[in-house]
Sequence to fold (266 residues):
Amino acid sequence: MPEVALLEVAERVATVTLNRPDARNALSTELIATLAQLVGEAEGRDDVDVLILTGTDPAFCAGLDLKELGRDGGPLKRARSEPAPGRVTAPRGRKGPTLPTSKPIIGAVNGVAVTGGLELALNCDFLVASERARFADTHARVGVHPLWGLTVLLPQAIGIRRAREMSATGNFVDAQTALEWGLVNHVVAHDELLPTARRLALDIVSSDRRAVRAILATYEEASRVSGAEAWDIEARAAALFQRGGVDPEDIERRRRGVIDRGRSQV
Fold:
């Protein structure tokens, strides 16, 4: 029987692939556990700086496995039996299905991302979408409530009124609309999806690892507050980062690299 999720590491980039294509990569209890295991492995590896999360065609993720849900409650049964969480303790506040990592995650959305699959995508740092990608929140249509951060992350991405529309109607949003709304960063030809995600991942790899993680953590913490408090969070994070030490020679080397890179990208 094929593995329900796959991990591949190359050039300091880990690619995690949901691999239940016949079930449109629906999140069964087994897949959730395997995904947690693989992401945890990538988090612990010294040869990984960035993760890419994608699905085996034709779907990114169709959400919770409704057959399992209808049979015994699946993951929702476990959620009902656990106490409601307090402050989020996962690195950088991730609360989606099993993404406990401090490393950047690029979502490469190759097809539909629905309900729990949409939440999985939203818990990535940013998204690249195939032209075939479509997005929908069908929690209300199925008769369940979001539990992996959708009501926080979706309005952050597209605004509260569009988020309310998606959740109340359950209507699908195509890739181009998702781009216009700010849900995804890029829409590319299907065959270019993973190459584009890898190029972006390698751009991240070429940045200072410690700075990338510190800055993304600051974004995450500041997103939970507003106004002056967010400015204070950045000031504290910057002071803490500086206490970790700064090598002037390394900064000069990177400064020259930035100039050369900027010339090549004009």
